Amino acid sequence: MTDITRSHSPIVSGFFHWGTFWLLLATIAAGMFYWNGISELLEAWQLPEYSHGPLIPVLSALLFLRQLKTVPVNHGPVHDRWPGIVLLVIAVALGAAGRLLEIHDIVAYGLILWVGAILLISFGWDTGKHFWPPVVHLVYMLPLPGALYYGLSTYLQGVSSELGVFFLQLIHVPVFLEGNIIDLGVYKLQVAEACSGLRYLFPILSFSYIFAVLYQGPMWHKALLLVSAAPITVFMNSVRIAIAGYIVNHYGLDWVEGFTHFFEGWVIFIACVLILFALAWVLVLLRRDKVGLIEALDLETEGLGTQARRIGLVQPSKAMLTAALLVGCLAMAWKAVPEREAIVVEREPFTLFPSSVGDWRALRHGSFDPEIERALAANDYLLANLSQPGVDEPVELFIAWYKDQSRGGVHSPEVCLPGAGWEIAALDPIEAVDETTGQSFTLNRAIIQKGVNRQLVYYWYEQQGKRTSSMFGAKLHLLLGKLANGRNDSAIVRLTTRMGAGEPVAAAEARLQDSMQDVLVKLPRFVPGI
């Protein structure tokens, strides 16, 4: 777009003029429109895993100013601002979708696109497109979706624990790993505690990104520095586990408590950073130009203040005016609309679950440990044994109901079962039929084993009358349900039965099929459909 004619007299001569005025107005409007996403970030940054978050915008700004030093000042008109407007529309649409669905993470994603749009509007496409590194770096301030974070952290904890146990076995320290317990004989270390050093994975990923951007060398060197962050973090945490095991074996429990607290914090981070520097040094040695590590890492910071003052050179333009008015009007319009409250459905609590389900007798187990309940984060849950005269093995019934899934996620058994020491030998979606309604649906059928013990598992997700075997399908139904009727509730149902020695799978399957049909009859009272 063309610039607004300069016949307008500046509001204040010098730094503050129509260009900076519209930029300031656009920034304030974005702060209002994306506030739900910003507040979500502020809340996430209080967690140890994301405590590095406040530094990310600062570091991105420094990366931008360093890059701006290579861009000459343009006093002429800028004609290629329209890609910025296109990106702005996408950013606004994403933010609006997040606010409409009340998924604040999506609003935060839109905020990052808004930053990219403002750069394209300010500099034009030809110049602004080169500022993608600092914009992409902002991704590291975002919290991962709950289900993805839980699955990723559990997987990395498993890898780190296996590697730590391997190191202990190399130095002849007796150790046994079962699920989320590292058994050192006189001392049992929880995997979550043993792998607390992994909480620094995200700041290390951010550091490796900056490292790769600053490194002056071949692209494959940059790529190697970038992707090495996760393996280095897992390796260092495995070393931490091995050292803890060695201390227990040779010096006793009194020493290991102090060690685990000392070696779980920034010591892991600093050690990983030093390994990154060592890796960069090795890469520099392999280069033919024989530069030093300091020369290879462009750490020049001189003149950044001068570059920051270039904000006063922002030209007034119709594109920047559009950005300010569009986002500002949307923010004010959204404020005027009454907030839509989530629909609270009428349901019976699981405490009223009947003691008999068809031909099966239901005996409640009671409650989980407080630690498990916190991890489960369900508003209501049921854990019961279903037994039947003449049937040797009972069926365990587990149902977890969530009042509001917009700010969390169901923990998939694919993640929870390995954490309890079970190996998933087979996992497949199968078709099932609710004989009461005649409707078919898909559920997950898994065979799990721990040593000689084997179990058959059925589980599926209940999304307001929709049943699916896919967690992502459940998320899609959640979004559609939120749009259609304002509901956020969700549930997961799991049926498990032990397979006796030599018992065919078909016999266990018959137990689950029979009990499932009886449970489906009672389920709508406690997990309402549409």
From TrEMBL:
The lineage of its organism: Bacteria, Pseudomonadati, Pseudomonadota, Alphaproteobacteria, Rhodobacterales. GO terms for cellular component: plasma membrane. The chain crosses the membrane at residues 15-35, 85-101, 106-125, 131-152, 159-177, 197-216, 223-246, 266-286. One of its GO terms (biological process) is proteolysis. It is found in: Cell membrane. The keyword Membrane applies. This is Exosortase D, VPLPA-CTERM-specific. Pfam families: DUF3485, Exosortase_EpsH. Keywords: Cell membrane, Hydrolase, Membrane, Protease, Transmembrane, Transmembrane helix. Residues 323-526 form the Methanolan biosynthesis EpsI domain. InterPro entries: EpsH-like (IPR013426), Exo/Archaeosortase_dom (IPR026392), Exosortase (IPR019127), ExosortD_VPLPA (IPR026491), Methanolan_biosynth_EpsI (IPR014263). It is a multi-pass membrane protein. GO terms for molecular function: peptidase activity. It comes from the Bacteria.
